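User: what does the whole thing look like in 3D?
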Amino acid sequence: MESTGRDPVKGGEPVIVVEGLTARFGEVTVLEEVSFGVHRGEILCFVGGSGCGKSTLLKHVIGLIRPAAGKVWVDGVDIAAGGEKELNAIRKKIGVLFQSDALLASMTLGENVGLPLEGLMGLSRETMELIVRMKLGMVNLSGYENHYPAELSGGMRKRGGLARAMVLDPQILFFDEPSAGLDPINTAELEALIREINIGLGTTIIIVSHQVELVLRLADRIMLIDRAAKGIIATGTPAELRVSATDPRVRDFLFRPGGVPEEG
Amino acid sequence: MRKERSQPGYALRAAPAEGGEQVMHLSGRVSLEDAEELLADMVTLSDGEPAGAVHIDLAGVTYMDSAGALTLFRFEERLRREGRPCLYTGFSERVRGIMGLIDRREMFRSPLREESRPAGLVVALGDAGFKVYADFRALMTFLGDLVAAIGHLAGRPGEVRWGDVLSVMRRTGAEGFPIVALISFLIGLIIAFMSSLQLKQFGANIYVASLVSLAIIRELGPIMTAILVAGRSASAYAAEIGTMRVNEEVDALVTMGFEPIRFLAVPKLIGTVLVLPVLTLYADLFGIFGGLVVGVMMLDLTPYTYLQESQRVITLFHLLSSLLKALVFAFVVAWIGCQRGFEVRGGVEEVGAATTSAVVTSILLIVIVDSVFAVVLHYVG
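Assistant: Here's the predicted 3D structure for the full assembly of 645 residues, as structure tokens:
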């Protein structure tokens, strides 16, 4: 029987399975033979230094880039092999908050958030407006529906981007560097929102970040990507990695005394 | 009396309860797909019932999304307006979590700003007038700054960024040459062909040469070249400086003690002013050559006769006035292109608008200036 809402069991059946993914740009191989699974309802964070291939991995999983080799199953559909039709069906089940928020500048915040609803048949204007207001309320942006993105602060735009990403209640939400350009207060607000969405809606959350502190606070599971290894070098819960990781690269990146590692 | 409604996603059953109350049993999927239908069904089943409380039993709900929860709240809001309480029973932790995410007070709050509506004709005309005035002021202010910068650098030629001037000359001149040459050649060819159709009837083939030469040198050479350079270079200047503003590169120049107009606009102005007259000369030559091809191939003129007739009608005054026009057009292209770039204040979307505006405004000003030239040169010549 179908469960009420999303499956609450973290560590349940995998909603994303990646097998032998190789990402290549021309002659340069960024990721090689990467395999992992994402469980329904969990918060999974990919971490690694700049240029290690985190965002590339994300773009492969959301179907923006086709892999040079390997398979990417999202909710049972191989998006690496599927056509545009299959990809579009899968895209309705996912939401993405891009690093730059990616709100369309020529539209108001309300129009931006309501954009994914426009393709749905039989939805009245009143319902669409109420859904937009509800989502803006969820991200603490009530009343800002008639403002343009340029009139909002960086943190507000980010939350606006999140409202748009979750307007269709996607099963999976992707965040690319969610705290980029945000001050600690806005970062904390966004972090609380991510947690609320995960618990309240049961949404599977995948975060790509190099902000180790944020990742250690939020993640159910962490995967560390290494540029030289061209893949994942460690997987586990923050507690597991803290206790059992012996690889100096893992310890150096995640648990370096004194805080966040240098970019590079 | 028991009443029922169902859709592919959900089933709704209503039954009267004691004290004029009503119980609604909702089961299945309560989601965005059936949101409109569910609200309509709930309203239908509750209408005409005694004004008692409505109990909504959610025990049979297998799935609920936020749009589904919103539908329940909308129904509740409707009952509240009728003075009927709404109570939920049998909801799971999951449904409670989803419903708890929605802040109903915030949702029904008025926007901080009213939706902008199209202004009336009078207001729109007034706004347009103010915009034109503000634009004119901005253009004139920038012109003043530009002239001041040139005045400053005139006494200090060593401060001019000559490397940038050469780069502008290469991009505007050398790289623009092929398209200018091709278009001028084709324009000359078209004028010669079209005029020959008429002049042939009177046996006045030879006048095709004078018509083409005069039209190209006095009008079409300078204006076509200027329009092409406006399309290629004014847009490029606006995009380059606009992007630099968005990326705070202009602010960085200021903090390093550079004056942005001297640093960015003056080299573009000098480069364009130096190169546009040369391009115009080439355009004149290729235009005449285009006419010559038609004259030789269709009108049985010899190249010598054609060129001799062209030489007869072209005076030094025509050539100099053509070059003078090119100089002024070059100034207009650089002035407008740079001004539109510096005008960018917001994000990248403004760069696109500035680029378009640079091309449109420079072409408009080129045509206006050309009209002034036409009148003045008529009396001077």
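In plain terms: The CA atoms of residues 75 and 81 of chain B lie 10 Å apart. Chain B touches chain A at residues 29, 31-32, 35-36, 61-67, 70, 74, 92-95, 97-98, 100-103, 106-116, 346-349 (CB under 8 Å).
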